[in-house]
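Input/output pair, single chain:
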Amino acid sequence: MQTPLAASSTTDCKQQSFLFQDLGSRQVVADFSGGTLSSDAGALLLRQVDINLGLTAELAQCFNDQRDPAWVDHSVQEMLCQRLLGTALGYEDVIDHQRLRLDPLLAAACGKTDPLGEQRVLPQHRGIALAAPSTLNRLELSNNKDTRCHKVPHDPAKVEACLLKMGARCLPKHTREIVLDLDAMGHRLHGLQEGRHFNAYYDDYCYLPLYAFVGDFPLWAQLRTAEHEAAYGTVAALEKIVAALRRRCRRARIIVRGDSGFGREEIMAWCEGQREVYYCLGMAKNSVLIEKLGPALACARARHCLTGAASVREFTEFRYRTLESWSRERRVIGKAEVMQEGENPRFVVTNLPANGFKDAKDQTRFSPDRLYEELYCARGDMENKLKQQVLDLGQELCQLVPEEERTSAKASEVTLMNEPPRPD
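Output:
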């Protein structure tokens, strides 16, 4: 055993550690022996989160491992954990794992009982605990390639159901009401990515994924190309999302909320055909709607002239049906707003009862003004959650690159923040 050095010991250039002035009862030691180091200690926290959620354990059940166990060093769960933790730590590319596979701390976070890789099957692999980029690549591409090397296919339906289950699990079982927010967000592309398409709304080539949130919890993130409108595929998504919510919260009523991009006949008709599924959706204005809002607009103009307020609002409701696209007459809420900049009429269509639910104490909750201002406008917070996925990640990455390389990152942030205003 090495004898500890005192703070006043003679310096020896060959020694591995140095003692500095004591800090109370503690010794201050500088050790230059190196050893096994890691800059990704946060992986241990992520490991604990994964253990508590059971995410990789659940996802591993969605894969069909056809490999010979005698030659397998890395289980499906370990490879999933390696890939997910690597992505969470900021290593998004598979090639990053050429170096990460040597990190024993990441190996420990992935559940490796041999974090130094000293017990690998093949001698040439010993000392490397984790899977190589090529192995992870085969895991990701096993559904796309039919070769003797791609032996770990997954069932997309099972993966989808697993993620929905994990998201719905965040809700208390006895929740009585769930507001399900829908939105689509354009992700601009910089290159010749597969499926790129020009979208006139974003005036650029982009993807247009569909998102669904309940409060802070994301339940659905479906990658889509941008040649379709925002509501494309929403009914199919709602069927799966509502079924998952029903399994978790059996007695809950569900309110589907979205902007005018989701005010479509197929979505409203589907909600009306379900048990305790309601909708509150924006509507694009037209000449007929503006005419029906006329008296409220006139009243708002008069109040604006008399009071000189910056903004005056009047609300009304009426029954409305389109000439061809709607199958029935529906309740429409109109907002007549007059501002110093001009008039700002908006519309919302809903099947929520005007007198509230029978078992509710507040019977005026869905009156025209409260439904618009308290329920519909609250969907704006969901858009903040969407922007967090891009902007917050950009802020974190910005701190990791040199100052001279930050220009493009800042430009992309400004592009997202200055998106054109939505029609409602």
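The chain has a mean pLDDT of 85. The first strand starts at residue 17 and ends at 23.
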